[in-house]
Amino acid sequence: MFGLVEGRYCLGLVFHPRLGVWIPPGGHIEPDETAAEGALREVTEETGLTATLLPPPHPRLPDGYPYRAVSPPWWTVEIPVGPDAHTGEDHVHVDHQYVALAHSGRPDETAHPFVWRTEADLSEPEAIIPDARGQANALFAQVHELVLSQTGWPG
């Protein structure tokens, strides 16, 4: 999740207490929600902020298509994990990874420690979980244009 902080884009991260690392907000979806709805709910629960999903480049549905489009993730990946609060067995998480832009709320009212990181901050080894560093760097390179094209906000 990106946010415009003091005139520059920053990446919002939460501290994961069990893993001991800074990660993008996220979690499991509830039975009555889509993955996109779950992503937005988790952002609010974990950061105190509300956000808008920024869809990846993808073909638009034709005009007049009769069904509601669901915001697609930027990436869908399989991550092998060990036992956790949901199961006592090794298993695989299928992560739907979204990109969002924060627009309101108070990050001091959070369930987890929260921090804004600049692009330069990501060079520090402890700044972000290693497997998300490459994605974050790639997104920083295009966040200004992405926000402008999706929202019209100049940033």
TrEMBL record:
GO terms for molecular function: hydrolase activity. Residues 1-139 form the Nudix hydrolase domain. It holds the Pfam family NUDIX. It comes from the Bacteria. Keywords: Hydrolase. Belongs to the Nudix hydrolase family. This is NUDIX domain-containing protein.
